[in-house]
Amino acid sequence: MIGHLRPALAAVLCLAISACVGAPKRQPVRVAPPPATRPAPPAPIVVTPPPPANAVAAGVTSASFPPITLDNATRALTAFRATCPALLRRSDVSGLTQTADWRAACDAAATADPASFFAQNFAAIRVGDGAAKATGYFEPEIAGSRTQSPDYPVPVYARPGDIVTGPIQVCPDDPTTGPCQTKQRRGRYDETGAFVPYWDRGQIEDGALAGKGLEIAWAADPIDLFFLEVQGSGRLRLPDGSVMRIGYAGQNGHDYTGIGSLMKSRNLLGPGQTSMQGIVAYLRAHPDEGRAIMRENRSYVFFKELTGPGPLGALNVAVVGGISIAADPAFVPLGAPFWMDVDRPEADGLWIAQDTGGAIKGANRIDTFWGAGDEAKRIAGGMLARGTAVVLVPLSAAARLLTNAPARP
Questions:
Q1: CA-CA-CA-CA torsion for 17, 18, 21, 22, nearest 10 degrees?
Q2: Cβ distance 201 to 108 under 8 Å?
Q3: Which of 18, 128, 147, 277 has an alpha carbon 20 to 30 Å from 327's alpha carbon atom?
Q4: For residue 250, pLDDT beyond 50
Q5: Proportion of the chain above pLDDT 70, given as a percent
Q6: How far apart are CA 369 and CA 373, in angstroms?
Q7: Distance in angstroms between the alpha carbons of the first and the last residue of the chain
Q8: 193 — alpha (psi -120 to 50), left (phi > 0) or beta?
Q9: β-strands 131-139, 365-372 pairing
Q10: What is the number of other CB atoms lying within 10 angstroms of the CB of residue 182?
Q11: In this predicted structure, what is the pLDDT of residue 235?
Q12: DSSP structural state of residue 304
């Protein structure tokens, strides 16, 4: 039996191992190697060119002289006369004018006819593309007291004496936009002698300045005081009904952050709620979140009591509702007439640059002043206008600036 099974078994084994003579050989399967992976190239560093440093760097061209109504010219001339003493002693960092340029216009302003004064003494120029953006501010009135009490718990601080200006490393939030830079900023010397940024809003609200004798008054409500800071000056209605006027005395050196833009980007404000009134309503309805949002504006304003006319602008001259504006002095000489044609008719016409603001930066960026009271609050709180603008400069300055400069069509 065994002898008979051997051939069959041999055949089975031969098939199983495919190794018998005459069995076809399998061709090896060649598998292509995976493509070599290459490291992704580094993301390019995009360096955003810095904005123009002043009006001359932004570009200056001639413009047609604007139409000015008699009433507008009369009010503007009054404000210009009040500004002339500061104009004649102040250096112009915009590069548009020199102090001597203003002498002829200021001399003529003393006895000038408003109807012809501006056309006879000034030329119109356009800075950059002349595209204007205008917001509004006013002189608010809030509840306050000269003494602290449970009804008036929020301190109104004078400018601290330890704020100094020195070199600080300023780095962009996104490092791909450029390197850190050393800039002159307001700060303080800490206990080790190192120069550091000054206390920010949150630190001040948490008591960084408490007990130093800097309190000049006390406010009833932190939101009201926050928006008085944004305006830069205001009135405290005291418990006996009298008024204490306070004005800008300094700032802590941190950049201003507009909380309205933050809230809008986070979809916290619906249609029609982006005015100051809408922002305040949200902050009051969400007190904890509102307090945190306000602290994102790290800028903090210090005040002084005003006993004369006011509120005072950056030239230490009283600003006037409907005629005074805040502008960036790097682009508009403080004291200069400034004319706008925008999509809000209340803001059309001739203004005088008499103030500055932490958020008012760049060419043709303007903050219009509307005075005090409910109507001023309504207009200023909802003001956002866009259009075109020109700066009026003395004839001697225009002749120097526009030499060989092509006019825009």
A1: 170
A2: no
A3: 277
A4: yes
A5: 87
A6: 12
A7: 117
A8: left
A9: parallel
A10: 9
A11: 94
A12: E
Average pLDDT, integer, range 57-62: 95
Q: How far is CA 378 from each of CA 50, 154, 202, 258, rounded to the nearest angstrom?
A: 36, 25, 29, 19
State the maximum Cα–Cα separation within the chain, in Å, rounded to a whole number. Answer: 144
Helix 222-231 / helix 287-295 crossing angle, nearest 10 deg: 30
* Per-position DSSP letters for 339-360, written without gaps between them: EEEESSGGG-EEEEEEE--TT-
From CA 214, how far away is CA 303, in angstroms rounded?
10
* Closest among 210, 171, 211, 163 to 189, alpha carbons compared: 163
pLDDT at 43: 57
Per the rule left: phi > 0, alpha: psi between -120 and 50, beta: everything else, 354 is: alpha
Torsion of CA 8, 10, 15, 17, to 10 degrees: 150
Rounded to 5 degrees, φ, ψ at 69 are -70, 160
Q: Where are the beta strands (DSSP E) in 176-242?
A: 181-189, 195-197, 215-219, 233-237
Alpha carbon distances (Å) from 205 to 257, 300, 301: 17, 10, 12
Q: What are the pLDDT digits (tens) for 81-114?
A: 999 999 999 899 999 999 999 999 999 999 999 9
Over residues 188-226, the pLDDT tens digits come to 999 999 999 999 999 999 999 999 999 999 999 999 999
Tokens at residue 384, please?
Answer: 């956002």
- The CATH label, of 1.10.10.10, 3.40.50.150, 1.10.10.1590, 2.40.40.10, for the domain at 55-163+198-257+297-401 is 2.40.40.10
Using CA atoms, how far apart are residues 9 and 339, in angstroms rounded to an integer?
111
**pTM, full prediction:** 0.69
Tell me whether residue 271 is exposed, middle or buried, using C-beta atoms within 10 angstroms of its C-beta: 0 to 12, 13 to 18, 19 or more. exposed
- Cβ(253)–Cβ(186) below 8 Å: yes
Q: Which of 19-33, 56-70, 202-216, 274-288 comes out lowest in average pLDDT?
A: 19-33
Q: Taking the CA atoms of the chain, what radius of gyration do you get in angstroms?
A: 34
Least confident stretch, 65-69, 101-105, 308-312, 351-355: 308-312
The residues spanned by each domain of the chain are: 55-163+198-257+297-401
Residue 269 corresponds to which tokens in the numbers above? Answer: 């404000």
